Amino acid sequence: MKIYQKFIMTAVLFGLFFSFCACSSAVEKIVPAVAPVLPKSVTLIAAGDNILHNTVYNSAKTAEGYRFQAMYDSVEPIISAADIAFINQEAPMSSLHEPSSYPTFNSPQEIATDLLAVGFDVFNLANNHMMDKGVKGVLSTLNYLDTLPVHIIGAFASEESRKQPVILTKNGVTVGFLGYTYGTNGITIPKDKPYLVGLIDDDILRTEVSALRSQCDFLIVSMHWGDEYHHQPNDEQKRLAQLLAELNVDVVIGSHPHVIQPMEYLTSANGHRTLVVYSLGNFISSQNKVDTMLGGLLYVKLTKASDGYCFIAQSGLLPTVTHYDNSYHEFKIYPLDNYNESLSKKHRLFIKGQTLLNPTYLQQLAQEIWRDNIIGFDELSNKFAPINVEPLV
Ligand SMILES: [Zn+2]
Question: CATH assignment of 40-381, given 3.60.21.10, 1.20.1250.20, 3.40.50.2000, 3.30.470.20?
Answer without folding.
Answer: 3.60.21.10
